[in-house]
Amino acid sequence: DAGITQSPRHKVTETGTPVTLRCHQTENHRYMYWYRQDPGHGLRLIHYSYGVKDTDKGEVSDGYSVSRSKTEDFLLTLESATSSQTSVYFCAISESFLSSYNSPLHFGNGTRLTVT
Amino acid sequence: QKEVEQDPGPLSVPEGAIVSLNCTYSNSAFQYFMWYRQYSRKGPELLMYTYSSGNKEDGRFTAQVDKSSKYISLFIRDSQPSDSATYLCAMNNHRAGGFKTIFGAGTRLFVKA
Q: What's A43's domain CATH number?
């Protein structure tokens, strides 16, 4: 699994509570990403990082923040969870800027988050 | 309209059948086309890639791109129960980088023994 660990694997939380998901990699890849996967929508990019302390927004970033204080760790925080954030969250890494055959996205096994 | 459209299935076939999975897209700037396979409760993994138009073959898998029609396909020959998974197409503009990769919604495939 390309040395990517996501924690927790499952989480149930209540509306309005803060939630932090963690992604840890052992590949020393520069680029890290957070996606959410929902039926009918596929994978949608939330935030990404191109280095320590360097992050930017993806297409569905509202309600989410990220931090990357070390190369190996990328945290996703839901400041105040809502039911619409119930989803499966995937972390991904890539070696270079160009995601293609020579630098594909490698995904973790996901965190299943339920907001009640 | 979504940039990438993919029939969600599910698609159920008998073992040994030829499977055809397809995606259409609207952005003519896409240059790299990929297929990811995702087993249940797992993350996606890269299965095939193609640059621009043409075919690429890898064992039982063939990826095909028709840029004039904005249509890509993945063919699986002699399908096996172990091929049962969700298949996601993905594509990006080479110059835009990995974070501009757009994924299809995925097609669930079941191969019956």
A: 2.60.40.10
**Interchain CB contact of A89 with B (< 8 Å):** no
- B92 to chain A, any CB pair closer than 8 A? The answer is yes
Q: Is A99 in Cβ contact with B32 (below 8 Å)?
A: yes
Contact B41 A105 (CB under 8 A): no
* Amino acid identity, position A92: A
Q: Which residues form the domain of A63?
A: 4-115
Do residue B97 and residue A99 have CB atoms under 8 angstroms apart? Answer: yes
Beta-bridged to residue B91, according to DSSP, are B33, B102
- Is it the case that residue B99 has pLDDT exceeding 70? no
Residues B35-71 have pLDDT tens digits of 999 999 999 999 998 888 889 999 999 999 999 999 9
Q: CB-CB: which of A58, A106, A108 is closest to B99? A: A58
A69 pLDDT tier (thresholds 50, 70, 90):
very high
Domains and CATH numbers, chain B: 4-112 (2.60.40.10)
Residues in B touching A7 (Cβ below 8 Å)? none
What's the token pair of residue A72?
């190996």
Q: Residue B98: CB partners within 8 Å, gap ≥ 6?
A: A31, A33, A94, A96, A97, A98, A99, A103, A105, B92
